[in-house]
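Design a sequence for this backbone.
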């Protein structure tokens, strides 16, 4: 959940990227490899975040993740408040509120669902935006395929790994992701470089702070938890954002979108390897339905 939709809206020539050795290393990796590394980083961060739920509630982990990301990205691209219009403020604050709700509901979802299932459901948000941008009848097939995937994920039987509450949280996160995409485009046209995202993350950290601090309490001051929270912020925001920006400079946007469609499958693999979340055949089929729908919608958008 990083720069998935920023490719159409931001002036990438002014966006910050890794410097020195990191930039050289990134240049030596094929752009498709950078996207896959970014997806892996995001989902690895989500896996470590979920592992923290044993000692901190999801809202406290969200607070650590967003605050760490805001501090790091803010240091790279410090937003300038002077000269902002009322509409600039409205878009920036709306962007930040959406970011806060998106992350909070996603973390509440993965607290109740396997990581791969939660990401697949959340992915319906950007999929909906991609389908809405194209008016071809074939899009109805991709909507149907995605809907079939959600139906396969639903706990119709005695599934212990899936809950209706988790599905509801993931759907809200997906709706917020769709809003994030639209607001990212608006912010990209009004804020230079990455300062729109930086401003939104600061707003998001401020909004989530009361809930996160109240739920986490004194445990938030434990050095080891702060360190893990910093790592989650790096893995979930800073590292993938930088990798995606490097990739977007060197590859067509439709190829980027196709590769990003693999994110639910990557989430399921991270859930299996890091968290021991074993999915059954029905759940894997559901994830593949969402991946297939996203791939189809992306290709149709390219051809249209």
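Sequence:
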């Amino acid at each position: 959940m990083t720069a998935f939709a920023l490719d159409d809206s931001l002036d990438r020539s002014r966006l910050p990227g890794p410097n020195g050795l990191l930039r050289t290393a990134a240049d030596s990796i094929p752009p498709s490899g950078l996207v896959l590394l970014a997806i892996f980083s995001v989902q690895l961060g989500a896996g470590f975040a979920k592992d923290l739920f044993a000692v901190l509630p999801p809202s406290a982990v969200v607070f650590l993740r967003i605050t760490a990301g805001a501090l790091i990205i803010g240091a790279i691209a410090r937003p300038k408040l002077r000269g902002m219009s009322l509409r600039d403020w409205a878009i920036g604050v709306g962007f930040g509120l959406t970011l806060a709700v998106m992350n909070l509901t996603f973390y509440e979802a993965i607290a109740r669902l396997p990581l791969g299932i939660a990401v697949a459901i959340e992915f319906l948000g950007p999929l909906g935006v991609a389908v809405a941008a194209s008016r071809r009848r074939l899009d109805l097939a991709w909507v149907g395929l995605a809907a079939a995937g959600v139906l396969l994920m639903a706990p119709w039987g005695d599934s212990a790994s899936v809950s209706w509450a988790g599905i509801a949280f993931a759907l809200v996160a997906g709706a917020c992701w769709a809003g994030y995409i639209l607001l990212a485009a608006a912010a990209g046209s009004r804020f230079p470089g990455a300062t729109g995202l930086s401003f939104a993350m600061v707003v998001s950290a401020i909004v989530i702070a009361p809930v996160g601090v109240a739920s986490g309490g004194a445990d938030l001051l434990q050095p080891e938890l702060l360190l893990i929270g910093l790592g989650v912020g790096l893995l979930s925001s800073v590292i993938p954002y930088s990798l995606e920006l490097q990739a977007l400079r060197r590859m067509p946007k439709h190829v980027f979108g196709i590769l990003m469609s693999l994110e639910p499958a990557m989430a399921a693999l991270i859930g299996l390897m890091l968290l021991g979340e074993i999915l059954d055949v029905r759940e894997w089929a559901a994830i593949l339905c969402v991946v297939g729908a996203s791939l189809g919608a992306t290709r149709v958008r390219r051809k249209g």
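The chain has one domain: 31-303.
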